[in-house]
User: Fold this.
Amino acid sequence: MNHPQIAAFARLAKENSLPTRALEGQKTKISRTMHALAYDSVHDEIIVNSPLAQAILIFRGGANGEEPPVRVIQGPRTQIQGTDYDGNDQMAYDDVHGEIYIPVDRNKILTFSREANGDVPPLRVLTGPDTGIRGSVRGHARVGVDPVHNLLIVTSPAAPGSNAGASMLIFDRTANGNVKPKSIINGPKTEVGGGSAAHAATDKGFIIAGCGTASVCAWGINDKGNVPPRWKIPVQQITGVAPSGIALDPAHKEVIVTSGNRNRVMTFSWPEVF
Amino acid sequence: MRGRIDSRALFAVAVTIATFTVWSSSTRAPDVETGYSGRLVSIQSLQTDFGDMCYAERIDPFERNAAVPAGNLFNAFDDTAHAAAQSTGNGVEIARPPVRTIRDTYPIYSSIAVDTQFNEIALQDTNLFGIKVFNRLENTPAGVEASKPTRVIEGRETDLEYNNGLYIDPKNGDIYSVASDTADNLIVFPRSASGNAPPSRQLKTPHRNFATAVDEEKGEVFITIQYPPKVVVYRKQAAGTEQPLRVLEGPRTGLSDAHGMAIDVQKKLLFVSNWGNSSDYQVAGSGQFHLPSITVYPLDAKGDTPPLRTIQGPKTQLDWAAAMAIDPEAGYVFMANDLGDSIIGFKETDDGDVAPSRIIKGDKTGLKNPTGVAVDGKNKELWVSSLGNSSASAFPLSANGDVAPVRTIRSAPAARTSVKFGKPQAVAYDSKREEYLVPN
Assistant:
């Protein structure tokens, strides 16, 4: 990939629709491998990882062209660390409490204030053997946040050599240090582990994430143990392409799904989860 | 008669889809607290890891359901929703198709190479995943939507996905291509390759290849690795898991998010363009942003060798500089300057904060986000591929300023700009503007 833009498309855009604007160029400091992105609807800002420079970039919500970020979180005190393969590529944002969650070093979740700028330490560091947080072979765990029910949702793959399957670890949103999750969704029925981070459909209490067999699944926030997803869109079976990233549009009861490997952005109507 | 049958068939399909849509939309959601009864719809194997985000799907984009295992019970159903409950071991499957899909149906060209022996141009398409080959003298007439390639290498057997740097062997026409995202390899096709043809040779490489070049005298192939930044040098005929002959990497090299590369075998020089995104992945908080640069090394540099010279600074105009090409006779190194919508040329001897000696830029050029550049020394032409408008243009090798190309090969209507997708892995929803934010 040789053009790491952030393109904005009208919600009703379709095949061959052009972006309304694109954030791109050297001054933006954006680079390849942006596997996570968030929009802050409260403060009208865009938050994105800088995967190769161990940084978080915050832009104006309407940023366009070669516009620099308004804030950059980067430096030794931040503890931000990528891997050789995926870099610093994962992140989740809580626009209710104004906090940024970054999984790093395979088994840590760092939390920063949205107002952080420069070389600042994280507000909290969730890590330790009791947490059960693990990264993948070459990358990080996935993280999501439910600001209404105050939950932090971490998707971790199985331990090396284990056939226990990936787990969805559900913590208190403000969990700090070496603490156990409140609940764990794990087992052969769960299908946890599709790659995409978790997103919260808060009104009905669903957790939406990528899941097995190239699908997008919904679990309940109170689910635990070996339970199947409550809803499932078998994206690859329907469209022929596997899902990558996910975003929710509760107002229109739609789920937006990208196919990173096939250059597509697909919108599914999913009123059942909103 | 045929039209009437097709109409009736289409109507029947539409009624079927509408029925399923209404039924599935009205299917009661399993209550989060209690669930409800239903029936088993599938049995699936346990997923033990969600893998890495840059792994390839290895499916044929043109074959629906291609990757669904034969034993998967979903194969028994077709676009339907089937209700079940957690209490019985399954939830509800929604099988409604997407209501909208954003995609670009035209090629997005990342790289270009010239075959002067067989008079051909090869273009790397990172949208539809293939290599399109045109006659070198092709010039798409005004009013024609697109030129037809003389051959296309495309399909699941080719292993082409998000490929980038192209090189054509001047003796036999072999096409070299490096994977810049999912595949981590260098693949080689014979000149005769066409259609869904497997590469004749594959070499496993590190992740994040960008550019490639070959020293034909010494029989060595060079590849830039974006991150962790390095230049790896293999035997030209290397295959499989053969290890590099040497590797240029380390903090003293000045490499940072390495991209384009060019070699001058006469002057024994190696040129690399850097975007400046830097960190040591083994050290937390070590990230830094540097100004973009061109670093120059001895051709046989290895290890943590510092550059002989560094072109860097505000005068350079470097802005996401992608591919590089050398005109050794004139002593210029050209950069496809993506965000500058320009080709910029530096003297091979330039050093420090210097302005480019040559700039091809302006409305007449037709350049839009150029990321590929190649020098045709035999015909004295400079070829440029534009990622932003699905085209490739030939300029006189001495071109400078706002000049029109002598020929342009278009693969999309004139004046159409590209969506510029390149592995859109994530997405966010801007609820204020009702827009999708899609990073590459």
Remarks:
- The radius of gyration of chain A is 18 Å.
- Chain A touches chain B through 141 residues (CB under 8 Å).
